[in-house]
Amino acid sequence: MTTNFSVNKQLSSTSFPIGVATSAFQIEGGRDSREASIWDTFCTKPGAVKDGSNGFVACDHIEYWQDDIELVASLGFDAYRFSVSWPRIIRADGSINQQGVLFYTHLLTLLKQKGLKAYVTLYHWDLPQYLEDQGGWLNRDTARAFADYVDVVSRAFNGLVDCYATLNEPFCSAYLGYEAGVHAPGKTGKQYGKKAAHHLLLAHGLAMQVLRKNAPDVTSGIVLNFTPYYAASEQQKDCAATQLAHDHHNDWYVRPVLTGKYPELLSLLPEDEQPDIYEGDLALISTPIDYLGVNYYTRSFVQHDDNEGFTILPPEHGAPVSAMGWEIFPNALRDLLLQLHRDYDLPPVQITENGMACDDVLINGEVDDPIRVQYLQDHMNAVAQAMESGVNVTAYFVWSLLDNFEWAEGYLKRFGIVYVDYSSQRRVPKRSAQALKHWLTRRQSV
Ligand code: GCO
Fold first, then answer.
1. Distance between CA atoms of 15 and 167, rounded to whole angstroms?
2. Residue to substitute in 399, 404, 405 for testing ligand 1 pocket (most ligand atoms within 8 angstroms of CB)
3. I want to staple 147 with a disulfide (CB 3.0 to 4.6 A). Which of 203, 206, 262, 327 is the partner?
4. What is the distance between the terminal CA atoms of the chain, rounded to a whole angstrom?
5. What's the domain count of the chain?
6. Does residue 415 sit within a domain?
């Protein structure tokens, strides 16, 4: 297998951390040693998850975590981004699950021993079910409960963490979970999405204040996902629809965090779709962050729609797509970074997720994924171009270390650079992992 991997010099110095990412629900398993999360419940709904699977075992990382960290180190990465499972830390009765806390402190200690930087995400979609039973993210109190949980972990992890992310992709939690209903908890209705989003952003703001107190030396921020939208035609109404999609899905999250204001769209929303904003909320939400985490996978085309205002189109016929059906278009990552740089007074940016699902198959003990190698190389080079144009990017993470539970797709989609044989839990580094290793271990310090 060839393992050539050629990346622009900006990203090829050992002083620029290259990492690999995972999240708790997607890999851990160990369901019996934690409380239920909204994803456990969602998985029991007929038809909610394509293959009818769940996160009871997943990659059994709760058993194999030492091997998995060893793998991250042996592949030559500088950093590991993972998430902490809230329902593994705080029990329904409010007490602390010390075994859960220990799991993560052991993991963090091992990362330190291996010289790997620890990037810790505090919420990657697995809300404790007992909080959903009280209204979940539609209940303002959930934001306060999050801050209390963050207080517990940031004290326990003292000295072990390099970087915190409060939330991962609040758009997905709010819109996919409470409006479109395709993610947990599976609620549908336009009256819910922005309300849930506001409480999530509030949770972020409250958590930032806790982190400033408990972990003042740790780089802290938030991770947002962005789908750059392109107008399906030059017609004015398609251009307006594209802006609307951007305001709803991208700008709704980044603008309040960076400026303390929602997009103007707020005043145009029907009353029942408006979030419940209290005095002081936006000041909290815009607590200064040390970095903005950007997750990028694809772009989309947008068309005017008479009912909804906009509709998002599938990729054009013949466009290269991933196994998710998402268009592969690296230049949109460069352009996204440049646009953020133009629109905002940006803090340093980390690319906290980037990767693709392929139809990977294990043949004679090997998995050949040249398309993923190309994808990663092209996207890293797109990042390097943005850096050349002045965007301050300070880290890059591949999604994901392992094939894992891909939410509503179950185990059908493989995003890992390491193949997981779920029947034996054997891990097999794909060609992409080998290519990355070859490149990572030959970088120079500059
Ligand atoms: C994400 C998610 C990941 C997904 C990945 C691919 O943050 O979107 O963090 O959990 O697996 O994006 O869909």
1. 26
2. 399
3. 206
4. 30
5. 1
6. yes
pLDDT of residue 4: 75
pLDDT at 445: 73
Domain containing 43 equals 9-231+253-300+324-445
pLDDT, position 1: 54
368 within a domain of the structure (yes/no): yes
- What tokens does 432 get? 């992409």
Under 8 Å between Cβ of 47 and 81: no
**% helix, strand, coil for the chain, step of 5:** 40, 20, 40
Do residues 21 and 397 lie in contact, with contact meaning Cβ atoms separated by under 8 Å?
Answer: yes
Chain position carrying tokens 């007992």? 130
Taking CA atoms only, the protein residue closest to ligand 1 atom 11 is 406
- With respect to residue 240, please indicate whether it lies within any of the assigned structural domains: no
CA distance 397 to 295: 9
State how far the Cα of 394 lies from the Cα of 90, in Å rounded to an integer.
32
Q: What are phi and psi of 401, to 5 degrees?
A: -60, -55
CATH of the domain at 260: 3.20.20.80
Helix (H) or strand (E) holding 166: strand 163-168
Closest C-alpha to ligand 1, atom 6: 406
**Taking each helix axis from N to C terminus, what angle separates 190-214 and 252-259, rounded to the nearest 10 degrees?**
40
pLDDT at 314: 97
Residues of the chain predicted below pLDDT 50: none
**What's the pLDDT score for residue 126?**
98
From 155, 157, 63, 160, select the one nearest 116 (Cα to Cα).
Answer: 160
Residue 18 lies in a domain: yes
pLDDT of residue 444: 79
Bridge partners, 219 (sequence order): 163
User: Catalytic residue at 388?
Assistant: no
Q: Which residues line ligand 1 (CB under 6 A)?
A: 23, 26, 168-169, 172, 225, 295, 353, 399, 406, 415
Residue 316 is a catalytic residue: no
Choosing from 28, 132, 327, 353, which is the catalytic residue? 353
Q: Is the pTM of this model over 0.90?
A: yes
**Per-residue pLDDT reduced to its tens digit, 367-376:** 999 999 999 9
Which pLDDT score, from 0 to 100, does residue 2 have?
52
- Report DSSP letters for 363-429, one per residue: BTTB---HHHHHHHHHHHHHHHHHHHTT--EEEEEEE-SB----GGGTTSSB--SEEEETTTTEEEE
- With H, G, I as helix, E, B as strand and everything else as coil, classify residue 57: coil
Alpha-carbon gap, residue 105 to 88, rounded angstroms: 13
